[in-house]
Amino acid sequence: MSVRARILKGDQGIAEAVAILRCGEVVGLPTETVYGLAGDAFQPMAAARIFEAKGRPLTDPLIVHLPEVGWLERVARIDSLEQQIQVQQLAAAFWPGPLTLTLQKHPDLPDLITAGMESVAVRVTAHPLFQKVLRELGSPLAAPSANRFGKISPTTAEDVQIELGDVIPAILDGGACEHGLESTIVAITKEGFEILRPGPITKEQLSKYGHVVHPSGIVNTPGSLPGHYAPKTELHILETDIKSFIPPLKAGLLVLRTPDPEVIERYAAVEVLSPSGDLREAATNFYGALRRLDNLKVDIIFSESLREEGIGVAVMDRMRRAAYGSVNG
Ligand code: TXA
Ligand code: MG
Questions:
Q1: Any idea which architecture 235-328 has in CATH?
Q2: CATH architecture type of domain 6-213
Q3: 26 C-alpha vs ligand 2 centroid, how far in Å?
Q4: How far away, in angstroms, is 308 Cα from ligand 2 center?
Q5: Cα dist. 235→92, 117, 320 in Å?
Q6: Domain residue spans in the chain?
Q7: pTM over 0.85
Q8: Common-topology check for domains 6-213 and 235-328
Q9: For the chain, N or C: smaller number of CB within 10 Å?
Q10: Three-state SS at 170
């Protein structure tokens, strides 16, 4: 693969990223969740380039990013006073941060962004570099995760270079992402907050502000396929205890805590997600660890199941999709 995206850094990098975006081109940008492939939400040509670069079907809508809640009225309409109160409460609690809300789309927002849907997904990102780019550009940015469609989401600028370096002009380097997993997507419905994609903001956190429905990460957004986030190497989730499991092939192991030496010996490589067993740390490391094992060219990767509590729900959601996609993709 011929790598050509320029890696931009610092204030000069921000200025260059803004200049590129102003021309309707796309740039890889860091967020607090994963890296995004950003384009001006009000230039349909930029959205077209995003879909093209990712190889993403036009039926799969993009998330629109804002620097502050005050910009919301540029891209969305709030239906009722009740919804306004709910949005205000969620925004006060979780924005800027890894929460995406689906709201009624503003008529001026290009239909390509929302794949013709009446709703738009929006979030206020907490990443200081992304925020600076938004403010200097003066326009909301559409940004899906900066990976080829169906592949592992990137959590460093280098990952973006590997995924899309040959089809995009530049990547703004903001180091490793804080959360390492995509935002929680929530639809505000009459029944309550419907979690369309589990993520760093957990069901427990949301339930302080209202009734939460569909809490366990059921396939619901237009773009959530059972096989997504997939490595090239086959990935299997272990239901058995890793202590007694003998891998049949040259295998890699993805595990929460550091296993016993006799377990480590059985594998060509072992990636530990969190030595202390912390699920947030595990979420941050998940995509990077999967990517490293995938690059080692082992025959197969085995992964330990994690506790499905808090952010563990989101990690297991991505792990199942990655496993499915690695076999069926
Ligand atoms: O953390 C994140 O959310 C990252 C960073 C870059 O912000 N973005 C991200 O975007 O994960 P993407 O495109 O990879 O995933 C967005 C998901 C897709 O499954 C899409 O179908 C869904 O959000 N989506 C977008 N607009 C929607 C809408 N109006 N209603 C329901 N789902 C929507
Ligand atoms: Mg994605």
A1: 3-Layer(aba) Sandwich (3.40)
A2: Alpha-Beta Complex (3.90)
A3: 16
A4: 21
A5: 39, 34, 9
A6: 6-213, 235-328
A7: yes
A8: no
A9: N
A10: strand
